[in-house]
Fold each of these.
Amino acid sequence: MSLLSVRDLTVKFAMRDQTVTALNGISFDLAKGERLGIVGESGAGKSITGFSLMNLLSRPGYIDNGQILFEGEDVVQMNDKRLRNLRGNRMAMIFQDPMVTLNPVLTIGQQMIETLMAHRKLSREEARQIAIVKLREVYIPSPEERLEQYPHELSGGMRQRIIIAIALLLDPQLIIADEPTTALDVTIQADIMELMLELCQSNQVGLILITHDLGVVSQMTERTLVMYAGRIIESGRTREIINDPQHPYTQGLINALPQQTLPGQRLKQIPGNMPGLASIPTGCAFNPRCKYATDLCRSRVPETVHYGEVEVACHEVQRLNSDEDRQEARA
Amino acid sequence: MFAYLAKRVIQAIAVMFVISLIAFAIQGNLGDPLRELVGQSVSEEVRQQLRDELGLNDSFVTQYLRFAGNALQGDLGTSYFFKEPALDVILKKLPATLELVFGATLIIVGFSVPLGVYTAIKPDSILSRIIMGLSIIGISIPVFLTAILMIFVFSVEYGWLPSYGRGDTVHVWGYWQTNFATADGWLHIILPSFALASIMLPLFVRLIRAEMMEVLQSEYVKYAKAKGIKPWRIYFIHALKNTLLPVITVGGVQIGTMVAYTILTETVFQWPGMGFMFLEAVNRVDTPLIVAYLIVVGFIFVVTNTIVDLIYGLVNPTVNIARMGA
């Protein structure tokens, strides 16, 4: 049985004058200890997916439909007490910006110990000892002193290590990391990613890594979901998605990487922008930006089909594969 | 720490200098002191002579320096009406005013935090809407009207609470008579305290609510939820502490302002404090007393603000007092 099984997850936002759909029937599975990447542009619904898994959407967002089975129990149906037991304990989250994630007026120790004591019957001293052990695991020097410090006394990289340590405090089954290195210096990004990979592998923790960085995904994850305008448009083994993308959008993303362009040339960007949630085009949401779009693409939402090694939601995937177009596009 | 303190003290001295200058300038423009001292039957020559003796013909600077020199030694002049040192007159009245301000502060702190937090956590509940509605009314109605309304309802109609004076007070130390030692004293301070609090309380409820709502939207509150922390701990440990930081700063200024508002409250309730005294002094053109009052109130203002800044530094870990000003 898989650790996490999401079925037909639909999330809506009740705005003042209309209700918009942010996630439209998302389904995916995650095995125990598996590492999954979710990629896409801003506004694709990646972060909303992450927060939904913990049932942590704040108003006006809400889960309209679907199931999130975690260890066999539906997160959507959980009451507040069950949810508290889930959050931070069986499923932990790493937020995007470590500069604003930790509470500025509480010490690192207070914020670690309270997490432990919220889930386990421990004395303060026992909790402190566990916190020290976890800080060592993320290579924080002199952890005893760090516990007495406030967040502003530590660097961004140090804070993100502490947040990783907090995520590991209660030995969760799954960690959701929402762009964990976007706010950090490039030099530290690689360190943090390496640390997360190492800890996930050694502790057999499942990881959902939300990012727009395809390089990170290829290095960190075994499987990848590509999202566009609230839907999964392509999913499969990370290696296949990176090396042989089927959906025109995924192809565009990979072609847009700087490595795909010779120095001095313009980056090959995908024309246009991700549509706003209130103005998602009919049919395939990607059709206005897609050079292969047909009338069918403009009128009907494509079904997800198994093609080659991946699952892809595109009407034209077969034509693309046989076409010369595709070879040209990848060149 | 020492550098910071020293800096604050120098600032306070500068402010006191300006206040004393303004107060002294007022003194020179509030009519002729000789008229108050000698009446009408004294001839112009004697008046001139008295003017010379009193130093009223000296230059402004000389007069101010004399005034400031005396003030530094605790001599703020002699009240024309009481024929006593003005500072003594004020110090006798000061405890009554401070107790009134203290009572109002207790009410404000005791009510604004729970009401502000509640209306922030449940912004759409009917009770929150009622509280917010009442707070608008509270801010809008002037203190003297609130006070008269309260007297009408609680003293005249129902006869529950006394409407004037301090009631039974107990001598504590020096000029200090306290209301808080007898039941009668407690009863007497209730209405004036609520009247004085009636403007600041709604202000604080709204301030705490606005700050708290902003804090509740923050990433660290969301993160605390993601860690499975219980709601009461999120509200009162994670959010409230961050909420109160700006509130402390505003609060300090407001406590000073409340000392000024006591003029209205004390007048309506015939409260024998220095606000009431000040109004009487104005009526009697008791210039030295008016000046002394301004300086004492200014001093209280400066002291409370300095203390508030120090407290802020202690509560907010991102302000390191030990290193500040260095």
Amino acid sequence: MIRFSLVDFSIRRPQLVVAATVVLTILFLTQLPRITTDTNPKHMLPETSDVRVWNNEVDRIFALYEDTIVVGVQSDGGVLNRETLGRIARITEEILKLQGVASRDVNGFTTITNVTAEAGTLKVGPLMPAAPPSEAEVESLRQALFGNPLFINRIISPDGKTTAIYVPLEKGANGAEIAKKIHDIVAKEKGPERYYIAGDPVARDTFGAEMFKLMGIFSPIAGMIMFITIQLMFRNLSLSFTMMAVAMAAIIWSMGLLIGVGLPVHIMSSMAPVFLMAIATDSIHIFNEFYFRYREKRDKLAAIRETMQAVSRPVRYTALATAAGFAVLLFMNIIPVKVFGGLIAFGTVVLRLFSFSLIPAILTFVKEEKIAKGAESVSAELDRTARLLRRIAEVGGTRPLATALVGVVLLVVAIVGTSKIHVNNNLVAWFKEASEIRVADAAMNQALGGTSLGYLVVLANQPEFMKRPEAVRWLEGLQRHLEGMPVVGKTFSVADYVKRINRVLHDDDKKFEAVPDTKEAIGQYLFLFSMSAKPSDLDNVVDTTFQKANVWVQLKTWDAEAMRQVIHAAGAYQKAHALPVSVKPAGIAYFNLVWNDEVLGDMVRGFVMALVVVFVILALAFRSAKWALVGYMPLLFTILLIYGVVGFAGKDFDMPLSVLSTLSLGMAVDFAIHFISRFRQRLAETGSRDVQEALLWTAARPGKGIFRNAVLFAAAFSVMLFAPLTPYIAVGAFIVSMMLLSALLTILYLSALIMLGRKWLLDEPMPAAGAAPAQTKGG
Amino acid sequence: MKRWWIWIVAGLLPLQALALSGEEAMKKSQAAFLYPGKDFKARVVMKLINKDGQERLRELTMLRKNAGEPGGDQKYFMYFFQPADVKDMTFMIHKYPARDDDRWLFVPAINMVKRIAAQDKRSSFVGSDFTYEDVSGRDIEDDNHIIEREEKVGNRDCYVVKSTPKGTDADFGHKVTWVDKANFLPLKEEQYDKRGNRYKLFTADEVTDIKAFPTAIKRTMKNLQTGHRTEVAYIKTDYDLGIEDSLFSERYLRQPPRKWID
């Protein structure tokens, strides 16, 4: 029994244990300054994943940029006036000078390619080369804008009040820095205009900043709250410090390891400090028991030994269950989830190592009189908390059938709610509604064609196919079909250029806003266009061999479902209009859809795995499948109840919540392990057959540990309710309610179920003395 | 002999004349590169190559006729062979220093000649990495030219000339040209954007004498920011063929004479 010798060793050589921990902690601490964050949603899936490989290929084929900042300019009086246009020209000019901006492909009034016919002359060039000096020119700009469907909803809103400048970034450019410089540029302009700076790089940067906020501000606050709560519970500063020190050390070790091996901190792992702090509260059972034992024995060293013996089995198994719950995440497809699982599993193991070394070592330093004082307050408090817990167990124990029936009814309701759960990841919704990003996104979505971008890549089986009139018309038809959908704001393809040039060549006659009848005409139009346009204009919509075409689909929402609807609609269109092409979706909107589905798949797989693993651990802990089954019940009940609420509330079930559903099994099962282990120990220790009495004792004594554990856990996570990102809030609410509910349900329903099934459960012989040494000692 | 010093000054004059100014170097370079002969004809094969190595082909016959001295008006006539669907397309430029070019395009599919506005000389020439200015030249007076140093390109001695636009409307920051000291052909040119980043690189890859005119028959323009490049080969290059002025008219855009376009 290595752990017992570890405890003995720690009590005999406490200084050595503490010193070794400090040295190791400092070693891990040195890694922390190398921290990097990764807030790129694309990195949720591995680089080798089909969707990322394909998206990269699409970016390459169509010369698309990975990152684009969108600068929205809005004015209630309209943007088409000399002052505003002057500002737009100045702002664009300044943006073009920024390092890292792909200047050649910036699209705004002054840079976007316009194809017009003036006095019989074809003109291909920037829409507004300079700010218009006269009202007449403003008027002709207005006509150019609204006369060209390529511009409406892209760079001008139909009401003329909003325009946008699209600023693509070179690979490896620092999006955050550029966004900040653009902020400075627009800040210099005084006028009635409102400016919105949006786009992936901005969202990522904000995200990163909020992550640091969570780690740097909210984690310490969570720590403080825990510290105060522990202090209120035990009224012993050195004990409170011990628990905090243990939690801090485990956090430093885990984060140090993560950073040390060169992994960036992601949305999930940024929550690790709070999780580890909460998981560290499991050692509350050690302190809880230590205080009881000390009060009984008044011998510190003996109390430590006995405590460790009494709680070692449940603590070991709860740690195992927690670690396993997180380790299940290692089998997921989503990288940050994997990393998070490994990180917390490691942290949990470290915490447990501390439980059997550092904690006993530190306990030897605590002055006896202080413990005595604390222990007295424990007994004083026992009257209130313990009595309450006893009463809860009494309800379950004396009216088991009624309790179970109420449970069944609740369960049915919860299952109905669970069936209403809607899996959806909306990255923009991860920001709070009042956040700059959400405001910008909402404004741009309302005014222009939509901020979420998907592509439909149309693949033919031979080169030059996309110059055929039937192909271009097919694209055009597909666009009209898609634009009939409420989620689609604007579409854009090579057909738009072909039609535009046809019209312009024919003296801007509306009749010719159509696809011409011959392949030669289309080829020549596009050649003509490419003679003067920016190379990217055509590259963005057709490949160099004209075998592949790219239809841009701007979506009005970041909901993953929107892209699924688009794909379905494209499929339906293809069925109705046969053409030897295949359509493959791409782009960030498609990525979100794939990722969303991965989250769902991961959730189901992870949940099933966690169910099995936790059951096995329970069965091992109790050496009985029956007891495992009973221990399972409050846990399942808790989770179903919470899912039911999530379902009824209509909250999107997103990645953080789905990860939690897996984790919560491993965390919430702790209570059942503690309860059942200690209950059975009690029965064995006292040799009594009075099940009810043993239940009440368990509810009052280890139950108090469970209660304290739950309160501490909830206290730590309650901080996240005030966090700046919605996933953090969701996680906070989920954990707080889960911990409190599962503590309550464990005490209530285990009491009821054990009473109901006592014949079935207790007919089997008690575990042998060798298997659980603790029970032979007096209690 | 009171004026003896005049003789000394006179003696020094040729030396001063030898010290070429940047502007003169660029003028000579323009004459050697864009104005050799009275007229010129070549079959031009352009390969537009993206950074993944995918190629697009442009093949055309290019005819040029000078109206007068180097630096003066010029007329260009182009007939396209490739890509296949633009065969018979023709394109004509009347180039005037110090004012916008006139451009016409014949679109055979709809049998239409269209005038094309030439508001932007810096836009791409037929989708290549060359701009119209790269192909037909930029007015010498638009820039300040300074010989920064002398340097070898390969085994050729060159002037290194830095040209900075006088106005602010140019879309580039400055360019640096390596001008061959012997024949004044630009052997290399680097273009910098307004942020001071090098973004385009021209190289004359093969120079040969045709009718005693040194001609860069292979040249490359590479966009250093996108990795896209255009390789140009002149085949069947010839000078002083006596191309008549009437060829450069709208009428011949529709039906170019066979003998000139092969």
